[in-house]
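Input set for joint prediction.
Command: fold jointly, output tokens.
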Amino acid sequence: MKNKFLLVISILFALVACDPTDFGDVNVDPRQVKEAPTPTLLTYALQKMPYIAFNSPDRNESVLETNYLNFYAQYLSEGPYPGGSLYSTRNLAWSDWYTGPLYNLQTIIDYNNEDNALAQGYGSKNNQLAVARILKAYFFWFLTDVYGDIPYSEALKGNEVLTPAYDSQESIYNDLFNELTEAQAQISESEDAITGDILFDGDMTMWKKFANTTRLFMSLRLIKRDPAKAQAEFTAAINAGVLAEGENITYQFIGGDPNNWNPWYEDYSNDNRNDYAISNTLGDFMLANNDPRVFIYGENLNGQIKTLPYGSNQAKNIPGAYSRVGSSLQADNTEAPIFTYAQVLFVIAEAAQRGWAIPEEARTTQQLYEDAIKASWQFWGVYDATQYATFIADPDIAYSAANGLERIITQKWVHQYLNGFEAWTDWRRTGYPVLTPAHDATQTGGIPRRMGYPSNANALNENGYEAAIARQGADTNFTRIWWDVQ
Amino acid sequence: MKKLLLLSLFLLAGLVQQAMAQDRTVTGRVTDAANNEGLPGVTVLVKGTQIGGATDVNGNYSINVPASGTTLVFSFVGYTTTERAIGNATTINITLGIDAKQLNEVVVTALGYAREKETLPYSVGAVSSENLTYAKSNDVTTALAGKVAGIQMQGSPSSTFDNANVVIRGANSLNTSNPPLYIVDGTVTDQSNVIMDNVESISVLKGAAATALYGIRAANGVILITSKKGVRGAPTVELNLSAAFERPSVMMPRQNQYAGGYTSAASSPGSTYDAEGFYNFQYDPDTHPESWAAFDGQHILEYGADESWGPKMNGQLYRPYWSWFPGADFGTQVPLEPQPNDVRDFFQTGVNLNNSIAVSGGGDNFLYRLTYANQDRTLIIPEARRTQHQVGLNSSLDITKKLTVLADLTFSYSDTKGQPGEGYDLEGLNVSQNFNQWFQQQLDFDRLKNYRNPDGTLQSWNIGDPNATSDPSLYLAPQYWDSPYFVVENNYTTQANNRLVGNLGFRYKFNDYFGWQSFARMSNRSRQGDARVATGGVITDRYQMYQDVTREMNYETNFTFKRTFGKFSVDALVGGNIRKNLYDRLQATTQGGLSFPNYFDISASIARPLIERPDYEKQTVRSVYGRASFGFKDFLYLDVTGRNDWSSTLPVDNNSFFYKSIGGSFVFTELLKESPVTRILSLGKLRGSWAEVGDDPDPFQVYTAINNSALYNGTASAAIGNTYRTGNIRPSLTTSWEIGTDLRLFDLLGLEFTYYVDDNKDKILTLDIDPTTGFSSYQINAGKIQRKGFEASISATPFRGGSSGFNWDVALNFGRNRSMVLELEDDIQTYLASTQRNDTRLEHRVGKEWGMLVGRMWNRDDAGNVIVGSNGIPTYSTNQERGTIQPDYTGGLFNNVSYKGFNLSFSLDFQNGGLFHSLTKMYGLGTGLHENTVGVNDQGHDWRDFPSAGGGILVPGVQADGSPNTTYIPARSYFYTALQRDNINQMVLDGSYLKLREVRLGYEFPKAWLGNFIKGANFGIIVSNAWLIYAPAKEYGIDPSELENTWYEGGQLPSTRTTGFNLRVRL
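tokens >
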């Protein structure tokens, strides 16, 4: 009897005893890829890129929402639910930037530096490293301009540094200039071009121009903080080679592909939201000057552009009453501008207006200004020689040395429609265009000058956060960041 | 059809009867010593066998005794078990007396083993079938409400098809949702698969010692359901028929004075409104056709507004939205007045028909119970319907004297259409959210019903602005809402659900002491369903379909040993189990609209459809375990258990873990048997236990994920997952202990008390980290979460007069749990559990109570004055702590009175404290719909008037410089903007409630009325969810005992009261 009992007990144990720790591939998720070669990481980072310069509402599956920048630049007004345009967004999450494109780019850098097999055969090490460094600088540049001091040198290190220190914006800027300079020099057109490059399809020369153009735009940020450095970086960027005539960097959204279509299409046409329309600040100014671009920027309502008053808390119903974003800009397959030649000309015009020597540039400030407007009309597809001639002769538009900076920046603002990031930044550093804060702003303090840190930043990294506050000032929308000198 | 069914059942019963072996028959009657009335339900067994039966409603029995049988054993819960020698008798009548000590109460414990309650070192909440079937509940957990100490009801709204949830002993981890494990006859199942009419008893295993043998899965407790089995003897047919009718009971009160619009958002009429607050039609020859010139100056509304801050309804003529649709009504003006329709009228009477038939019986070597149950339920929300069919089998067959084969099987099929949407659904599918948050009282339901125009297009009440354009495609387009009738009739989900839960196994008795049992158990659910959004409404038309399968297989073998050695007794078991889980879901969704109107198929997708596998989980756990219980002289008991698990979800080097428990029980009154103390204290027991429970993570959580992302034009895209994992996590052990006592006074009053402490240390946690690290969370072994609390219950039988006298049972229970977060990780002091609108967050903060609500609050100066901005609106700070979602205490009362054939029972349950966030309140106030948004300001002036005309609201407070606030803000700015800036104070409600859960009045028909064919019949009237007696949240139309979610509601569906009739017949 007892023997029988022991027998079955041993059978039972035998059931689990044949190496019970071995489960084969039960714990492997078939939905995940096992490893990600560097081009796939690059593609992902590039897919997140348009949200910086082509500001749009939240997509369903993404929180890379940047539409608040269109409100700060007063490109758009809100209809039924005024909020962001009344500066209700005090704190903004940044996690999707850091954990998404930035960590991907850091991984490309790490894989290349450690000669990981996942980086082999997708372009030369130099070219891969250079592009990842350039893009990483581009994303960080955006983040520091929005928040000021941010985690940078200790960021993106996983569990090695769980609470990265916040770097001063000054040190971040210094390092970004350095990175862009080194990285564009690291590019070698004779070596294998990178793959997974959905922006330039491996055109390494364009990556150089992208890096130098970024540096060019960055340089003018320092105009009040450190004019000498601003000029030096500006000159160096021009000399290294920025976008030339006819060259525009755009991001192509893909029609019919819900994962890659224009977020404005998603908002208006797929989600049937009608929350935003062109603001009276921009629209009325353009209408007053018969600016043909306004019919690209705004929805044509029986031959009219109807602008929505900016900054009122009075809810308004939009369809038919106010012009939403223009039809080509809300198409599913829009080509979104990242950097345009017109912008480059406006930047150079501003430098010339400040009396800087412009390398290899024979044009006067006025010529640069007018050519910039022409490039803009060409970019937006409305150029007509006669109409253009009338436009630049209009006393409200024509260049005058007396208010040269205002004219340049105001026309740059008109050109940069939906690039609230750049326009708001121009306003912060020059005060132009002259903007009146929202009448019914829910915060008193004018137009925001920065974005508050994520609302859980303090809880997750108290020391870093507190040090940044101590250095930079209170975590409000109205504290000026380092380069934003009074 | 029904006749045919009955006929076949009788045929079956006849066959069964034929099969029974006939040795000799003993008959008799069992009566209650107290009153000499017959005692029904007494078990009569031939000693040493499983042969026997039970007494009928009159106490009569008749059993077949084999030649070897010498003694009959009569037993009945609460009565002294009595034996009688048979001798040559053919009739044995016997009288049973009440067992003073109640020592033989048996409860079902882990792995289905029935054990005497006095031997247990921990508390088990047991509910027997009589207390379950008084009121015919739809689900297991609702049936437990108010009957077991230490559980918190977390319903789902009673107006849905969802089952209610319970939390046992509060939170035990960082998870917000802590559902228990449901087990029927040893096989894991889900609530909706349980055939309620088959439930014999429910045991609620609460602490780690009680659940130790279930291991890691039972951290939130186990609800152990034992179903009714066949009984040897003549077949019995039980019919249980019920019909119940459901109406909304708790609803939000609405204001009936103001129409839709945004008027009260403005400080002055400006150019938008007239002095009365009307938005008027302004004829513009550039925009409008000449024929509209006559409309100039007509009162219209801001139709695009879905808020109720419009003009006061005084019967003024105005243009309703439908007067702008082409047709006969175009141009009509009607008086602006509140419509008499109540939202209640939108809801229909829900009907729930719930019927079952069960046939049970058995012969010398077999037992069976067959059940068919059928439910057909419609909800108060129109168009929602579920039909469910369930077939159940419980059977056993003795192949030899030693070997018994057992098979249990339940198959359920349900078909659901129109499961109502819950929560803040921006896609307009939740009509309740529409009514409570974004609705207007000038709207007429009869008009809303006719939502389709003659040309087939839709008529929304929420259209555009005819002042802006005369293009009907623009101004007639729906803005945010369709007619609620369109939504429920056209946009709906369907789901077909198949579940098979069952087991097949055997028991083998080596001898009187050693036993062996092995089972294969399967729990399989496969579903398929779809969701559609019809063409023409505010949301892009869409179609989604999905299929999923959830499967659990268990292969279990146990050896048992039970023997008494003189003063000592041993009851031991050792066993092993292999468990395999799978969950797999596939779904496809159209993108960018449907290619043909209302063409509901994936191929209708205009853009590339989204094909996903959103869920996939797979896990295997191998286990060996054992338990040994030792007894000494019926008063001292010791229990030890041990279990080792190997889990596939842990790293290979760390996937084995062992844990153990020990406990004891001491019946001290056994030592005082002759002492006068026992006259007062009839029973006294002390118990204590200590236990460990291991823990493993969910599948696929060992390494940092690399996620395939959406292709860009054929180019692959991938991202590194957002959770940093080292690949080195290890299983963690929770330790817990509990002590308690069971007392019985004067044979009348039972008292139970339990105190417990659980320490969850070194758990596998996924903690939020600073995302600038490149990861938003970090998986580590860390933390310490402690829960402690107590449970108490009192049960009394003030009167027991036997089956036809006056009986009264009452039970009161009470529990309190406190969970605290003692440690997380050095750099990490906060765990963000969940976020709701307006930055309202649920966080677990170190050193604080678990479940802290955190969010926005108005700023106040040192004197407590609200600090307002220069615009008169209070300034605010974020990250302010409000309090915990944990209730202070929960409990219930169960009461049952019977007299002759009548029986009246009711149960109450209550909760004190526990906070939740309410979007219904937030938007009910914010949009001007709730009746509290009507009133007068401190000047006695209607606050909805323009501040420029003396209206508006002055927030009492000071400006930054200390000067008093003097700015009157428009009413909407107060109720929408200002109150939401104090969100964590204003929009968080107290979850306290006291509820009369159910009332049943039943009548047992006298045998004399029924004739020979019918053995018993009982008719009952039941009111479920009878009365929410007290709840602060009632003011906002919310029943906190059935929240949509654990700590918030985003558009709660109404609570309902159900009145029903129930007829039970035994044949």
